[in-house]
Batch of 4 targets.
Target 1
Amino acid sequence: MNEGGGSDLFAGACFTWRTFGVDLVSTVEEFVPGERIAWVAKASGVTAYHAWLITPTDLGCHVLTEETQHGELARRAACSFPAGRSAGANGGWKGSGFDSPKT
């Protein structure tokens, strides 16, 4: 949910979300519509930084994501998910061909 109940994002906007049973409070750090978005997410035991770089394609767009996490909860998660969190956290996008045209 975006702070103030609106649906638009902007640098400085705050929103909350839940993943892997953890409630996070996030603040948008960068927002350029159609190009990039980056936010800091915080919860007890973890601080994370997420960035999405968006490149337009003929079929829509390609999204490159980067994420870094710090804190005790992040260290424990790294032990639980040593190969990454692609299927659970990202709806199975990794390796799905989501950004590739069908031939």
Target 2
Amino acid sequence: MKPMDKHRVHGAARQFTRSTDAAVNDKLASLLSVQSTTQSVGLIGRTVDVTLASGPTLGQVVSLDLTGSQPQMSVKLASGSVVSGVTLDKIQTIR
């Protein structure tokens, strides 16, 4: 057997590193998705301060939609209206 020259060894190491980095990134994205879902499920029935286009307001999380790329909640406001499509980044405080 012939030993590999140093250029081929370095090339193989770079390719392995890129492959490993991509796998780690995929696993991390999957873990973050599970965490977002878990956090959202825990908010059902909770009163939250939420930032909407009209400004900050108080409401209760009444439902959760997990069909998209990120969890979206429906929040019932004090006025009785329900705002859907609220994402975790819009929740400011959980009461």
Target 3
Amino acid sequence: MSEADGKRLLAAFGVSVPRFVLVADAATAGAAALVPPWLAALGMTVSSLLVTLNALRLARVKGAAASAPVPGGDLAGAPT
């Protein structure tokens, strides 16, 4: 990459990032005005519960899969 390319890349990055931040801030402010705080708290609680329950489900499925026999027998001699 030439020095000119590097300068153009930095200039584009310097213009794009502040625009993204402004748009994200505007979207957050707009959502904050539309959603009452109690509903936002309820949504975050439900989201956290779903993530936790999914992690527990995956851990249980992984544990069951680890103890289950592998179809096709022993794969120790299989090429990698």
Target 4
Amino acid sequence: MIAQYDCSRRQQFSVSRRRSGDQEEGKSGLFWLFATIVAGSIFLSVQAWEWNHLHHEGLWFDKHGIYGSCFFVMTGFHGAHVFIGILLDSRGAFFVSSSLDIIGRAHHLAR
């Protein structure tokens, strides 16, 4: 929960800095945007490692009944959410537009 809040705050901070007219604040915003991208990439790497580990332990979608199915579906959707966020943030790092503001507002429904 704290990591999610931290990601959301980092995202909001980067968007507000990038949208300001000040060049120094824009650079600061770019730093925080890349920090968000790096944190998301680390999360996806750890999730891939965890899935690989669980698969070798015998837990997979079709194993252990409802627990295996629910676990992989829920963590898979969260991984997809993080991956899409990385793609949108990467686009926002190169193109400052109104879409960056929309991405920032929609991220975890934070305003």
